[in-house]
Amino acid sequence: MGTVSATKRDVISRAFSSCIDGFEGRLVLLESSKQNSLPQIQITGLPNEVVQESRERVKASLLQLGFSVPSQKLLVHLSPAETKKSGSHFDLPIAMTLLTLEGFFPTNQIERTAFLGELSLGGKVRPVKHLIPLLDPLIRNEQIERILVPKENQEEAALFRSSKVFLCEDLREAIGFCFQKQILQNTEQPLPANKPHPSFLTFDSILGQRMAKRVLIISLAGNHPLLLEGPPGSGKTLLANCTPSLLPSLSEAEILEVSRIYSLGGIERAHNPAPPFRSPHHSISAAAFLGGGSGQVLPGEISFAHRGVLFLDELPEFRRDAIEGLREPLQDGKIHLHRISQSIRLPANFRLIAAMNPCRCGYSGNQFRTCSCSAESLRSYRKRLSGPILDRFPLYFWLEATKTKLAAEGASHSEAREAIGKVHPILALEQPANEDLTALQKRLNRSASLWLRNLEEKTSLSFRRLSNLLKVSRTIALLDERESIESIDLEEAWNLRSPEVLT
Fold it and tell me: Which CATH architecture has domain 12-179?
């Protein structure tokens, strides 16, 4: 390898990388300079312990290639200085700036280059966590012409289909690419063919429950939260487990959006077109459910379910603060997490399916089994769900155990999937307008308007109840291939509403 003449003391070597700042990736500029002092490497700019340890990893990996670094005190500054930096992915950019600063290579050859990668002591470039949010600001920045990432992160990097991104396996390849015009593989390629859905249950494997299947189709087509109640063995969990196979595959944009969330949580989910299906246990903490953490904020289950299904079995057994935390996501499709130093907004637009038994033993009101719960226990169990939470379930259905001989099958799995795939895109386009009750009321025909007026005279409808009634009615009308909302649609939606209080 060629050697460049020794650089002056005032020479500064620059390169780019990025860090996680809340939910977003943030551009980081690395600036390195020499100082007349004992040989050492100093890193400034709020680096955490992992970043500080990169000094030893970088020295060991450079020594393996025959580079003796440092010869003087080398200062590496990570800008912006007020943002905390964490992660081992700073190893590679630090190594590259130090090589140019020590005069082995020209500094101007990496000024418009970004690096992400952890170095082993032998010089291998290891994969990094959170690649998608880290890569995003680098690709969008016009100053950056090329980005080097570990080859083992290829699947996540390929989601961007960017000609800027190149893959390297070790430090020697990175040096060859930056300074000796060595050709590396880039990620400007189409996404691989969609993988098939994982093997989830289908409607065809469930006997009976015709009306329950109908309600589930309405819920998934219109993205209406659904609460299922019934004794053990009535099929609540089976129905919920069918939902991933009923939903259409994610689009390329949605795959990237979902993969970004999982990448932030340290989970690789690249190129998976199946909608997420999350079913957390009721013992989960509020932070793990909603998102949070003492240091870096991580997504919770509600964000991992983004664009998919969140199934909450035994809903009353969940922590009260976790259940109450569903209010904002169900309303806005996102959640705000407030910390002392920052406020973070995470996506949480999911389809909610919840299930519960009528009591702790599960047999309250059952004609074949005797309930062992006391009146106080029954009242305490059912009041664990507040009125405001119940009000956010436009759909409620009681399931009875089905007798096989009398089971009515209802819609087949293929019919249900086709209906959901046809109606959901229509409602997604209409959603902004449907937030306005006036737009929905214009879809009522004459008989439906009279039915609704009569209902308003007999009952006290809250704004949310009226909005939910009209939205569910619109979904029912589209499933039955009607453009206008008729009185039979309103009547079915009204009969499927959730109770205001569970008594």
Answer: 2-Layer Sandwich (3.30)
